[in-house]
Amino acid sequence: MNTKVWTVDAKGELSTNYPQITQAAMLLRDNETVAFPTETVYGLGANAKNTDAVAKIYEAKGRPSDNPLIVHIADIRQLNEFAEVDSEKANTLMERFWPGPLTIVLPCREGALSTRVTAGLDTVAVRMPDHPVALELIKRAGVPVAAPSANVSGKPSPTKAEHVVHDLDGRIAGIVDGGPTGVGVESTVVSFTRGIPVILRPGGVTKEQLETAIGPVMIDQGITDEKKVPLAPGMKYTHYAPEAPLAIVKGSREDIQRLIEQYQKDGMKVGVLTTEERAGAYQADAVRICGRRDRLETVASGLYDVLRSFDDCGLDFIFAESFPEEGVGRAVMNRLMKAAGHRVIEV
Ligand code: TXA
Ligand code: MG
């Protein structure tokens, strides 16, 4: 398959032109797959009502069929077609955080969507992305758009169109290149299906922000405790891993430098994931800077690009600094833990 790539230089509100977006929207209407930018990561979209279209997403990504997809909408009126809002708090969150990096799990109306979207569950995960290209594309497609992250399953999510090209060129119908995404980690997934609000996946909207809006929110124990099964089917899979094994180090820069030298003495090529504040402290085969530790949102924004960049270095091992688990640091540490296969070195 020849994958069409359109470039859209869109900042702020979009004008009514952008024929590229109309062409991409027509492919979605024809039940083809199109990758597009959101404020979090690139998504791989398809018509959520059509099973053939949705099947193409699973096929292109190599995604396990028990892992349901997030449905993206451009307008709150679209929601009623396929989901029920049975919680006052869910309403409050939509008003407060949409469009934005928050996904809400709601009861799904029977027969309204392809059952492959929900992987047979009676709930559906929904979000309204805060990106002018995504919103315009969904609007012009005129259908709810199912979209997981546009990476091959197991790889870090794409934060640039070139990541999508790397993973999916030739396997999908089109890519809308709208430049790098901003938030860098995926949306926060919240469920109300057990009565109380539970975070199934930490992401762009923080626990603290949610609690300011609706009071106490729990975090699914399945994502912090390795022995428990996560409530979101997708959270049980390994993910984000670079080709070389990676370990998170809870220790000082001196500790990390010592580890690097130890491993190098054994003949290994060693990389390190650090931040602007500490980068100068390391001598390694690859030193990659991921934002600033005093602004965790910059770490989130650069994380996946840095994880992917290690694959070009022919490394045998990677050490990553550890980050505080507060604010968006929770999402950063959750993704790093998965990239590390839960390997943590405490010095
Ligand atoms: O930021 C994002 O959310 C990106 C962009 C493209 O919007 N999308 C994304 O989708 O990260 P994906 O498919 O990579 O992750 C969706 C997560 C998975 O962990 C999945 O298991 C969970 O949401 N999920 C989907 N539907 C669910 C449901 N009905 N109940 C519980 N978890 C659900
Ligand atoms: Mg994903």
Automatic annotation (TrEMBL):
ATP binds at R63, N67, T123, S149, S157, R201, Y240. It comes from the Bacteria. It catalyses: L-threonine + hydrogencarbonate + ATP = L-threonylcarbamoyladenylate + diphosphate + H2O. Residues 18-205 form the YrdC-like domain. Its EC number is 2.7.7.87. InterPro entries: DHBP_synth_RibB-like_a/b_dom, Sua5-like_dom, Sua5/YwlC_C, Sua5_C, T(6)A37_SUA5, TC-AMP_synthase_SUA5. The keyword rRNA processing does not apply. Keywords: ATP-binding, Cytoplasm, Nucleotide-binding, Nucleotidyltransferase, Transferase, tRNA processing. It is found in: Cytoplasm. PROSITE patterns: YRDC. L-threonine binds at T40, H72, R127, A147, S187. It holds the Pfam family Sua5_C. GO terms for cellular component: cytoplasm. Required for the formation of a threonylcarbamoyl group on adenosine at position 37 (t(6)A37) in tRNAs that read codons beginning with adenine. Belongs to the SUA5 family. This is Threonylcarbamoyl-AMP synthase.
